[in-house]
């Protein structure tokens, strides 16, 4: 079928029926005056026909028109051409072929192209040169790289193709007056369905039977057509030549009437491809007679035939009783309804909405410039060695332009350019700008074609080498044209044709400057040789770029435009097509046969370039701002998934109403050049139902100036975007963890399903001790279990962790609570049990709390109250289980005095509002903030500031005047204003950092640098300032190495989130009213740490074999910005060791094994450890002139056995000293408690050998032996 022309596509207003009673036997002839139906001014009698009354609704008019019809006519069709060009309109705007347009990933641009095409079409219609229906767009999936018509499609992704199809249809069809019942022109989505073979190794489209699984049909081939109909409201769908699973698509009632008409509710007509009914009969021999073919097609839902087949054979079908009047009327009504919507029967078009359009509206300067813009946006930069592109027009004195496509004209237009029908040219552009012309406009060029044509049977290597060797730079413009890939022509090889690769390599070898390889093609090419060749410095793919392609290519090469195109299809190696037959329609891989699958969604083999690849002259960073970690899907009570373990649920309307969420991303242009950037949101779903390895959920294009940021928002409909099609063709939502991708960024949609894989050693020596101390040392009333799993078991359903450790080992005197809705997540998200009551029973049976008292909600949610009775009824729980849980809860309430009567008569009964926010409490909050503020850097003479010496202080930054730390994202700053106030001040305080939009519950950071452009602000202000104090307000550490190293930043303070009196506390420290004494309680890592280490790696200890550096100061082996315990004071404190032993002997029983063997450690058990302790006494002297507090850390570096920590904290004491005063600090060290460690099995051990004790720079060596 002849494709649309991206200029004014081929018109097909095929009126297949003869009108009687008023001489309307329409035969479209080419003239410069349009055919006018219902021209009442010329034929007043027509006003008596209702179908000529434009004020009536379409159905009434069509019914009236149908009553006047009889018989079938073969009027119209491709044998009577509708669109032509003349001296009046010699050409129309020619946009890039669709494959390059789709590479823009710009939905608004897709629609705008359709709008321009339809405006030019209406203009030509008004002078008799065009019709009003167009066979466009082609939304077939570009399944195989060899397909000659892949160039006409939006690419390989169903979602992207759907977006393109619906947007382009809207652009063509929607009227400017907003009347949704009328059409500007009529679009047609083709070729329905699973059509993507034209002519490959003797297998042609007319007889090919596409054997397609229902799953592949519904999740790959059908979505673009569905979107055309439902989202685009397209006027027509064209069925294809091929068969699908043994049935011709134009004769399949399930595909046509069943799906298009009934399921999708097409408001329009269904057309055949040209002569497809003839092929169905004569080539496929699907029916015994032509009349049977005609009857089958019309009864299947076909309304219109391109060709003469129905005109020739429908009467015979009627005569044999295979068709009746009702069948004919349905088809006629659908056709004429479309013509009514087009205004075809509304009279003189010059008096209608678009009647003022004419030749002046075709090929306008604006439209031609827009064609250039589309090409620029679509061009894809695939390789760019540093220093290669963009070229400087002033630096390049001579440019060699080489290649068979270097001076291309018609090649840039793609399919159908220059094809004639009965003497009329199907499409001509307004004008051409060849690549050579585009490049010559900027610099002096020397041209050498290098080949006679793209077939390049003999490369002209010597001539090309001569001009290349003499030039400052070389641009090679290679690829294909319609002699290689086109309708009715599929490729056998996907390498560069003929000797093109020989020419490319030869030229690259003799060139002295950068070599730019430009590929002009519809499909991908195996150019791995060029990708790997260091002498080929840049690669561009330009598709077939339309009339202005040469100008667009030059714009990108010379940096007048920053490339932003992304590949809409996978580029495979030649080995793929050598191995995979084009006729295999399976999308999914088959490991049993080695079949690798197709498209990025399923393909498992090597690639040359990936779907979505594309570079820019700028770097763009992504930051996750907002995304949920859990999505819960409500189900009816009787739903089977409540009582059994489901991996997916049906994506039906009742389930899916209003289940959606937002993803917000901050994008920053890190480069020096403004540019556009496409943000792709992918999902990797749980691997059920042969799910894709990943698939596209959405894409957005954003334009950013240098160093600017922007917010990109995605709304994700769970049942639409996160669903997949199962093996039977049913749409399902997979339950479990979906991984969302944006570039290298990954977000796990479900923190509630995270399984923390933790070694027993790490669990017992790192994660458990704080909880153990809470219970044993603090006698805490309650412990809350978490959402996550630990080593495959939910913490709220693990009897070892709850009953065994908390209740049994630690002897909790209180209750155990779940985190909010954690039992619900255990069942619905983790799918840990088969039924809700099993979850309730699992939790409660092991000393879990119950919550069936409506005033006591220790489950933090309704799960137990909803399901505990069912668990009891099923015998999963008994009265004893429930009573134990209730007793623990009530015991706590008893201890709280909840049942002791009037609280006013109890111990704290006299407390009231007067005891809240007291002056003493507020001052204490200020004191806590002062003591916690950490001075991390202080150049001599910087802090403290003198209030009398500082006459003006500039206070700058996003956190300089905060109250709640919920001020939203920092999206920019008035840099010039900041520099102005900074330069005029005696000193500057920059208060930077984060807030709850960056680090909070349900929100983790991807980067640990200062957010957004804060570092730019800091550096810019510092450069113009006399003295700079940087204050960091944050919860976690920041990579501020740049500030630490900058000598102009004289002081750095970390203030955490300092509470209500934080501002006063910061002031107290800066002006020396308080001597800083805080020490940082966490390591501050460099950004390289988080770039390398996944957050999901729970291992504390380093692994030299993988380069994993470990976590926290106890084990981490990499560089730091600041270390745990760092913190300065305005005074100096000296340490002197007063008392410490050098040897500790551990007594053992005579028969102990370590008496007779060389033990590296002994068990830290009660019998061994009784009364084995010693004292460390230190004298601390304050040398400074200012009173202050000082924290003394006592650390130990134990012998390196059992993957021991590098060092660990034994104790700390804070001492307050006046100037030049001394104080004594005492530590009591229990050998088995403080000097022990946990071995690989979780047993606590005391290492034998030398322990090094540290206090600041002071070291003391202690030997422990038996």
From TrEMBL:
<dbReference type="InterPro" id="IPR001764">
    <property type="entry name" value="Glyco_hydro_3_N"/>
</dbReference>
<feature type="domain" description="Fibronectin type III-like">
    <location>
        <begin position="1190"/>
        <end position="1259"/>
    </location>
</feature>
<dbReference type="GO" id="GO:0048046">
    <property type="term" value="C:apoplast"/>
</dbReference>
<dbReference type="Pfam" id="PF00933">
    <property type="entry name" value="Glyco_hydro_3"/>
</dbReference>
<keyword id="KW-0378">Hydrolase</keyword>
<protein>
    <recommendedName>
        <fullName>Fibronectin type III-like domain-containing protein</fullName>
    </recommendedName>
</protein>
<dbReference type="InterPro" id="IPR017853">
    <property type="entry name" value="GH"/>
</dbReference>
<dbReference type="InterPro" id="IPR013783">
    <property type="entry name" value="Ig-like_fold"/>
</dbReference>
<dbReference type="GO" id="GO:0031222">
    <property type="term" value="P:arabinan catabolic process"/>
</dbReference>
<dbReference type="GO" id="GO:0046556">
    <property type="term" value="F:alpha-L-arabinofuranosidase activity"/>
</dbReference>
<dbReference type="Pfam" id="PF14310">
    <property type="entry name" value="Fn3-like"/>
</dbReference>
<dbReference type="InterPro" id="IPR002772">
    <property type="entry name" value="Glyco_hydro_3_C"/>
</dbReference>
<dbReference type="InterPro" id="IPR026891">
    <property type="entry name" value="Fn3-like"/>
</dbReference>
<keyword id="KW-0732">Signal</keyword>
<dbReference type="GO" id="GO:0045493">
    <property type="term" value="P:xylan catabolic process"/>
</dbReference>
<keyword id="KW-0326">Glycosidase</keyword>
<dbReference type="Pfam" id="PF01915">
    <property type="entry name" value="Glyco_hydro_3_C"/>
</dbReference>
<dbReference type="InterPro" id="IPR036881">
    <property type="entry name" value="Glyco_hydro_3_C_sf"/>
</dbReference>
<feature type="domain" description="Fibronectin type III-like">
    <location>
        <begin position="677"/>
        <end position="746"/>
    </location>
</feature>
<dbReference type="InterPro" id="IPR044993">
    <property type="entry name" value="BXL"/>
</dbReference>
<dbReference type="GO" id="GO:0009044">
    <property type="term" value="F:xylan 1,4-beta-xylosidase activity"/>
</dbReference>
<dbReference type="InterPro" id="IPR036962">
    <property type="entry name" value="Glyco_hydro_3_N_sf"/>
</dbReference>
